Structure formats: structure tokens, C-alpha cells
Amino acid sequence: MRLPFASAKLSLSALFFVTAPLLLQGCSEAPQQQQGQMHPAAVATMTMTPQDAPFTIELPATLSGSKEVEVRARVAGILESRNFEEGQRVEQGHSLFTIDLEPYQLAVDRAQAALDGANAALVQANRDVKRLAKLRAEKSVSQRDYDNASSAYDIAKTDLEAAKVALKQAQLNLEYAQVKAPVAGVMGREFVSEGTFVSGPDLLLTQMTQFDPIRIRFGLSEREQLQMRQDVQNGSLTLPEQGHWQTKIKLQDGSVYGKTGEVNFSDVRINPNTGTSEFQAIIPNPDFQLRPGQFVRIELNGAVRKNAIIVPQRAVLDNGTGKFVYVVSKNEQGMDVALPAPVTVGEWVKQPNNEQYQNFWLIKSGLKEGDNVIVDGMARIFFPGMPVNVGQSAANSNHAE
Fold first, then answer.
1. What pLDDT score was predicted for residue 80?
2. Is the entire prediction scored with pTM above 0.70?
């Protein structure tokens, strides 16, 4: 009775060893069959064509008033009134302080009287010269008398001119007693109060800041400047004439300030502590929206990259070791497949597209003219060499094929 049972057990074991290789073979062939049956990924491409592209620099910057003005009196006297509020916006010529005017008004009246007297003396001297000239012709007076009259007339003319200068000086002092704003701007705090004796220009009365236009100061690294000079020499970059970059301001909330300016100064010296040289731009600020001390980001425009290769930023991927794009190529069977192409990127480039701006990467190396780069559908590519179906996509740029 044991023999049949043993035979059945042996038969089952033999059956397992026969069928196991077949099962393993089926499992190994399944992925290959699935890969062979995978449909090509639908993608959209962009053919690389060298073109001129705007070169933009974005940097941090600080704002300062275009003028920081100290307000001082030019004449001495008792300060009678302050004619502004601290923090007030004033126009050029606005009265800020009034020094006791009466002494200076009296000086003007005294100078005016002296001028009137000098004018009367000149008229009298003129009459004497004319009268003595007739008498001298009749030889009724001596030559000496006539010469004395002529000299008196000349002296009277000189006295009249001196009296005019004295009156002008007195009027100027009276005007200086009204301390006025030398520029349009915003007032700081007062340093003296009413009733104080102002000794003259040595005493600081207040300070004011001119906000319109406002000044932007920023630094550009020596390395970036050297790279730009090299690019200019090899013809791949053109810079704004005389370094007058067009300037935009980006505020802390990401919004762009509505007015633009331009760079008007660049320091030839390099700061040894920061490795940068200082630049300055001036931008209109009529509504005083910008304030000194603000930290902003500025965008410098006006330079052009010549014959540049650019791709949409969404087309550039990163595998952890570097950036790459997918390029459409033909395999041995003549099918379109996606192959990764390592690239070296430069700066961001903004290009207009359908009344909006699209972000691109400048490609320094890794692509050439005529390369067909995949710009949409990268998520459908599961492995290098995967078949792709190139078609049009609504999300494409104007250059997509």
C-alpha cells in the first residue's frame, strides 16, 4: 500500500520541476511585452534657433533720497516761528522758519533812504557841472572850480551805486530772515524751537530729504562684470550705450513700481570688503510711494544676447546631478524617441508671448541649432529612449512644432 502513495508523491514533484521554468519564463517576458506594447508619449517640441534675446540682471538694492539737505539760516536773529510740520511734504521755496524781521526791515528802509540821498546828491552835482560849464566857457570861473564840480559829480555817481548795493544787501538779508526750502521734499524734525537765538549758518535748524526723484544704490560683483566684458569682446553680448541701463523696481510684495529710470553712475573702484562696485540709478517718485531706506530688487534692462539658444524653463529638468532636457531623436527602427541631453544654463530670459511674458533659460552649452527639444509632455516620458509622438500643444510657445 506504500508504493502507490510514493509514486503519486514523485509524480507531483516531477510536475513542479517541469512547470516552474515555464512560469519563470512567463514572468520575465511580461515586462518586455508590456514595454513593447507601450504607446508613444504625446509631446510637443521646440526647434532650437539662435536668436537675439534680452539680457536682464536682477539685484538687491536700497533706496535713498536724491538729496539730503541741511537747513540753516544765513542771518542771525531770534527765531519767531516754525512754518512746517515735521514729516510734511513741502515744495521748493516754502517758508520753513521766520527770524525776527523788524531789524532787517529797518535796515532796508535805512538803505532806501541812503539811496534816495545819493540820488539827490547826484542830481545836484549834475546841475553844478552844467552851470559851471557855461561859466567856464565865459571864463567867469576858474578851471579848478569846474574840475572840482566834475569830481563831485563822479563821486556822487559812485555813492549812488554803493547805495544801490547796500539796499540790495539789506533786502537780501530781509529775505534770508525767511528761511525757505531749498528743494522740494519731506521735512525732518526740528532742532531748534521758537524763541531761540539763531547765530547764523553754524546752527542746524532741520533737515529735509528730496524724494522726487529717488536714488537707487546697488552693487555689481567683479566676477559678473568680468564675464560681461568677456561676452562683449567675443560678440555674444551688447550693453546699453554708456552704461545707461533701464531700471525697474520690484517691491517687497512682488509688485513692480510703475515708473522706470536709468543708471547714471558707476564707480570704477571695487570695494575690497564686498568684491562689488557701486552703481546708482535715478527714478521718478512724484507720489512719494518710494521711501529712503527701503530694500527692493531692481531689474536692469537694455543689454542683448546675440545668437542665443533659449528654451522654456519648464523644459529644463534636474536629476540631482545636473540639468538636462529631452531631445527628440530617431532610434534604429526609425521611431521618434526621447533622449536626455545634459545642458549648462545661464541667466533667465523673458520673452513676450500672447501679450504676456514667458520665462526661458539661456543655454550656454549642450544644445545646437536644429535640435528638437521637448517642451511639453515630459511627465509622460518614463525612461530614456521611450517612443514619443510629436504633436502640437495649446500650452506651447509660439515656436513649438
1. 94
2. no
